[in-house]
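Here's a chain:
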Amino acid sequence: MTEQRSSETTRVILRSFGVMVTTYEERMAELLAQAAREDLTTGEALRLAARALTLSARLTRRLREVTDHVLETEQRLLSALQEQLAQRVPAASVELEE
């Protein structure tokens, strides 16, 4: 993957994640407003809790994907740098720990 394409992929992933976080905040604010109602029933409270858990699970899954992308990018770039430096300065060759 070229660095330009990789950078664009990263921008798309991070932009998408930012939108998802904003949407999460908005939907949770709506749930909080609903939960503050004086006439909230037990059934409604359970539905609100289930919706909050669903929203949080989606956000956590996406955060994991973003984190994986960042860690893979870091590993790829550090490995490329290590290879390049090892070719230029063999005595400075160091193995990256996994």
